[in-house]
C-alpha cells in the first residue's frame, strides 16, 4: 500500500481547527483552556498544552506554521538532520513553503520542531515530524534526504521489508545462566490511515483515534485481555469520565510503564502536547506485560515485556496483539498506515520502517568498562542507553541495549541482530570475569 496520491494545493493554511464540542465547553479544559493538572506546570510547558501553536520566547520557540516567514530562518547554528539538508538545499524552503496536504498540513508543521530546537553538538536529532501520512510524499524532496541521513543511506526508491513471524526468530539463548539480563521488551508504533498524526490532529479527531484504538484493544482475548486507563483528568472516555486515579497513574509511571506530559521543547514544538491530557491513556493486560500507549508521540506505542530473556515469548505476544488490533480495524473498514517504501508510517522519521526497538536491561560492568564499548555495539547494529533511558547514565554497569536500526530491515531481522549481539556481549563479559 502506498501513501495518498492527492495533488498538492499551492496555498498556505493555519493549523486545522474544529468547532468547540459541546461536552468540552469548560473554559478550564481543552480546547478552551488548561486543566488544573497542567496549570500547575511551568509556563513554558503550559504554552504547549493548549489549542494554539507552541510559541515560547523563553525557549526560543517562535516559528509559526500559520505565518511562515518568506525566507527560512537562520539554521547556521543548528545540528539536526533537517537543518543539514536545508543548508545544503536552501531552495527547498521556498519551493515547499506554499504546499498543503489534503488534510491541511503545511511545511511549517513538519519543520517547526527542528527550527525551534538548534540541537546539541554531540546529539543529532531528526528535526522533523509528519503531520499526516501524505506529508512524507508531498514534502518528499525534504523528507527523503532526511530519512536517508538518519537511516544509513536508505534510498528514495528502496523497499522496506516487513516480517512479524515469530518462527523466523533466532533460537540462540541470550543469557543461559540468567545472571545478566534483568528485563526484555519489544516496542513499536502504529498509526491508523485516514487520521492526522498527533502533531496536527484536532481535539475531536484525537478523541476519534482513541475510540477506534480502544475498541480494538478491548477485543483482545486470552493473555492479551485487559483494560484501558485514560490519563488522570482526561474527560474523553465515557467508561472512566475523569481518567484513571492519581494513585494508578503514579504506580504506572514509577514502574516505567507510562508517559507523562511533554517536558521538552522538541515535543512541545512538534505539537504533540496540544489539548493535554485529553484522549491520552494506556491499555495493559491483566499480567501487566503488554502495554499500549494511546496518543502520545504516536497514535499507538505498543510494548511487550517481561523479566528474563525470553524474546520469543515477548515477540509472539507483541505480534499477536498487533494482528488482533489490525483485524478489528479491518472489520470497521480501517487499516494501519503502511507503504512499501517506508514500512509502518509514524510521526518521527526516526521510527519509520519497523518502528521497532528490541531491548533488554543487561548488567555487564566489565565489558562496558571498555573505552570503545559503544563503538563496538555500533558495529554490531546495537545501541546502549543508560538505565533510566535516553542520555541517562548507567548504574552499576547496567545498560539498556537494543537494535540501532529501524528502517531497511524487517522486524525479525532486527530482533535477531539484538539476540545474537547481546548473547555475544554476555559471553565477552563472562570471559572477562574468568580472567580477573
UniProtKB/TrEMBL annotation:
It is an enzyme of class 2 (transferase). GO terms for molecular function: ATP binding; creatine kinase activity. Residues 1-37 are annotated as: Disordered. Keywords: ATP-binding, Kinase, Nucleotide-binding, Transferase. The keyword ATP-binding applies. Residues 64-152 form the Phosphagen kinase N-terminal domain. GO terms for cellular component: extracellular space. The keyword ATP-binding applies. It holds the Pfam family ATP-gua_PtransN. ATP binds at residues 183-187, 301, 357-361, 385-390. Its EC number is 2.7.3.2. Residues 180-432 form the Phosphagen kinase C-terminal domain. InterPro entries: ATP-guanido_PTrfase, ATP-guanido_PTrfase_AS, ATP-guanido_PTrfase_cat, ATP-guanido_PTrfase_N, ATP-guanido_PTrfase_N_sf, Gln_synth/guanido_kin_cat_dom. It comes from the Eukaryota. GO terms for biological process: phosphocreatine biosynthetic process. Residues 1-25 have a biased composition (Basic and acidic residues). Belongs to the ATP:guanido phosphotransferase family. PANTHER family: ARGININE OR CREATINE KINASE (PTHR11547), PHOSPHAGEN KINASE C-TERMINAL DOMAIN-CONTAINING PROTEIN (PTHR11547:SF57). This is creatine kinase. It comes from Oikopleura dioica.
Amino acid at each position: 500500500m502506498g501513501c495518498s496520491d492527492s495533488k498538492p494545493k499551492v496555498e498556505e493554511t493555519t493549523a486545522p481547527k474544529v468547532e468547540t464540542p459541546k461536552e468540552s465547553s469548560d473554559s478550564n479544559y481543552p480546547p478552551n483552556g488548561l486543566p488544573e493538572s497542567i496549570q500547575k506546570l511551568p509556563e513554558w510547558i503550559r504554552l504547549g498544552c493548549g489549542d494554539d501553536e507552541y510559541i515560547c520566547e523563553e525557549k526560543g520557540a517562535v516559528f509559526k506554521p500559520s505565518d511562515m516567514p518568506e525566507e527560512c530562518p537562520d539554521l547556521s547554528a543548528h545540528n539536526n538532520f533537517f537543518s543539514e539538508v536545508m543548508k545544503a538545499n536552501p531552495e527547498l524552503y521556498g519551493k515547499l513553503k506554499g504546499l498543503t496536504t489534503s488534510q491541511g498540513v503545511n511545511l511549517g508543521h513538519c519543520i517547526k520542531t527542528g527550527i525551534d530546537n538548534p540541537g546539541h553538538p554531540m546529539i543529532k536529532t531528526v528535526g522533523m515530524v509528519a503531520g499526516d501520512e501524505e506529508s512524507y510524499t508531498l514534502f518528499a524532496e525534504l523528507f527523503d534526504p532526511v530519512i536517508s541521513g538518519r537511516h544509513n543511506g536508505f534510498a528514495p526508491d528502496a523497499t522496506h521489508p516487513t516480517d512479524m513471524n515469530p518462527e523466523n526468530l533466532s533460537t540462540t539463548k541470550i543469557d543461559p545462566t540468567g545472571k545478566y539480563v534483568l528485563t526484555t521488551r519489544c516496542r513499536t508504533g502504529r498509526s491508523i490511515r485516514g487520521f492526522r498524526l498527533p502533531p496536527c490532529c484536532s481535539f475531536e479527531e484525537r478523541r476519534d483515534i482513541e475510540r477506534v484504538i480502544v475498541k480494538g484493544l478491548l477485543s483482545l482475548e486470552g493473555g492479551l485481555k485487559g483494560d484501558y486507563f485514560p490519563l488522570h483528568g482526561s474527560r474523553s472516555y465515557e467508561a472512566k469520565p475523569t481518567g484513571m486515579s492519581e494513585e494508578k497513574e503514579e504506580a504506572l509511571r514509577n514502574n516505567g510503564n507510562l508517559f507523562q506530559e511533554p517536558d521538552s521543547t522538541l515535543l512541545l514544538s512538534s505539537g504533540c502536547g496540544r489539548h493535554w491530557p485529553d484522549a491520552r491513556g494506556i491499555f495493559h493486560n491483566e499480567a501487566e506485560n503488554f502495554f499500549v500507549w494511546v496518543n502520545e508521540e504516536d497514535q499507538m506505542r505498543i510494548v511487550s515485556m517481561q523479566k528474563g530473556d525470553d524474546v520469543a515469548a515477548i515477540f509472539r505476544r507483541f505480534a499477536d496483539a498487533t494482528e488482533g488490533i489490525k483485524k478489528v480495524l479491518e472489520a470497521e473498514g480501517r487499516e494501519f498506515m503502511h507503504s512499501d517504501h517506508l514500512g509502518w508510517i509514524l510521526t518521527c522519521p526516526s521510527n519509520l520502517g519497523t518502528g521497532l526497538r528490541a531491548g533488554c536491561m543487561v548488567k555487564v560492568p566489565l565489558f562496558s568498562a571498555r573505552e570503545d564499548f559503544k563503538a563496538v555495539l555500533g558495529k554490531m547494529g546495537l545501541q546502549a542507553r543508560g538505565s533510566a533511558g535516553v542520555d541517562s547514565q548507567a548504574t552499576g554497569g547496567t545498560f539498556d541495549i537494543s537494535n540501532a536500526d529501524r528502517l531497511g530491515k524487517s522486524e525479525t531481522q532486527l530482533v535477531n541482530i539484538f539476540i545474537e549481539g547481546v548473547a555475544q556481549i554476555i559471553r565477552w563479559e563472562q570471559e572477562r570475569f574468568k580472567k580477573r
